[in-house]
Amino acid sequence: MGKKQINHTFRIFSAICIILVVAGHADFHIFDLGGMFPYYSFHVMAFLFISGYFYQEEAENDILSYIKGKLYRLMLPYFAWNLFYGLFAAVLRFAGFTIGERISFRTLFLDPFLNGHQFGYNFASWFVPALFLIEILNVCMRKVLNVLSLKKEWLIMSACLFAGILTTWFSINGHIWGYYKFPGRILFMFPAFQFGHFYKKDLEKYDTLPNGVYFSILFAIQFLLIISSNGLAYSAVWCTGFANAPWIPYLTVATGTAFWLRISRILTPLYDNLKYIRYIGTNTYAIMMHHTLSFLLLNGLFYAISVFGSWAMDFDKTAFMTDIGYLYSGNILAFHWLYLIAGLGIPLLMEYAAQRMKKIIFPES
Q: Within a 10 A sphere around the Cβ of 18, how many other Cβ atoms?
């Protein structure tokens, strides 16, 4: 078999998106361009756009094999790490930490689909089961539409967008709560996946505007959105926090994705020199899974310094042990860089060590 062709632009784009996710969780907004492109207005949905872009319609010829492959690549490692973090939370509970629920059938196998925040330390990986369900829903839907001779990209995109806007409207009016957040999340995110495939099949060939014109139009649209909105950020995981008309989130997904995708295209000629960006883009799964643990480890270092040294005396031990979102800053903004670097670097080291161990256990023949 020939070597798999790598899309360099989307490898860079994937790296940028995961950097934005880690920066968002580190409360570090240096990459949102002064609030012009808030992370939480598009970054989660951008990963769905990427997944939709790479969807292969050949999957509809053998859906069971497709599902099996997704289970192996997405859910099997997810469940393994979910167990690890359940045990990790249990161990830390003996040390006085209160983060995370106890291990049970529900927290191991049901909560990953219902909320994904069961053990705290891997909360960012809620996206993996959601993506799995969206990919399965997509291939089954397309198979049915194909049988009915209704598989037209514009029709699929329009129908999914309508369903997503309707779901957003339900959320704005207080109808998405409790267990309704589970289907609400999927329906809200589904159009972003379809947008990725629609872009590849029908729009990408028209994406040829010169950079100056492209960015001028994009910034004009985004600026008008910002000055006329009540805030563009929202919560995809909880399908809540929508402060504007129900179609606005999908417009910000389009503008945020369009901006960083064009940046990625501009950087593509430098791909061979972007060693670390390439490695980040190749290992977004590991970074998504482990960057919160990295924040905890960095917090642990600051805690140790506060106990055994004369620095970081304002470290909040109680918050450290009870709040997964606690970050120590020492009232210095530059500390966010440390969390960003740790959130990217430690998961990459873990992935590198895992791959080395795999080669030792299963050496190539």
A: 26
